[in-house]
Amino acid sequence: MGTGETRRACLSDEVEERGADVERTAIVTLGDLFPEGLSGWQIVLALLSVLIGWLLSRLARKGVLKLAARTPGISDSVSQLAARFTQYALLLVGIGVGLAFLGANVQPLLAMTVIAAIVLVLVLRGVADNFAAGVLIQSRQSVKIGEEIGIDGPDGVIRGTVQELNGRSVILTTVDGRTVHVPNAALLTGVLVNDSRHGARRSDVDIRIARSTGLDLDEAVTTITDAASGVDGVHAREHPTVRVAAISPTRWTLTLQIWHHPLHGSAVISDTVRGVAEALEASGLQAVVMPQQGPPPLVPPEPF
Length: 304
Hints:
3 domains; 8 helices; alpha+beta; SH3 type barrels; Alpha-Beta Plaits; Helix Hairpins; 20% strand
């Protein structure tokens, strides 16, 4: 026998020995996993447990979806996520029971599952916080789609209309066209101002009228309220009112209070300023009319 043939014979013997070692290792591994002999009943019970777990997971998923549909304020994304989690959990339980019927040592599997769950909780802690906060927000209905809200932002208060509620954040659209994603946890723990829940919102307009001989304050107030009542968008249920903010020898400083739809504030205020200014000018009164940017001044800051 030549040298080449000897080498090939040695390699063949080595391959056969390695294959036998792999086979013995597989047998030992299966023997460790299933230490007892398998019987027909064990296999039948294992298959039944898996089948029952699958059926229960399907029924539980439908039950969670129906329960979420009956619960007001739960969005479709949240209900779908809860239904899938319940389905997969029950399916895994059924598979675990089936392995137990086969005599498998499920303790290592349980330990690995617990470790994986702990790691997953630590990694997705922020996601879990936002999801739990989203469920509370939607169940309590502190905000709804279409409402205008204000929240604390990095550069001040952010106001916008709610466009979407999901398991992670609340999506707003501001009046200047920006899209803002607010984490549910931040919305739940921070300061939230809902401008739409009451159904109406009050805005103030500052009016400074120059005093002159023979000018009556009540007549000026009547002119202002009549002009504001005729503006389109000003609510008639809550009548416009005029408050006296300051009186000096040269001017009256008044505050006009009007009520309007929460989402129509800018247009209604603009029309009110224009209508009141035209009415005062038609009455021969010199006045400055402007939206209020802050609390009414106690003393006029500058001469008229």
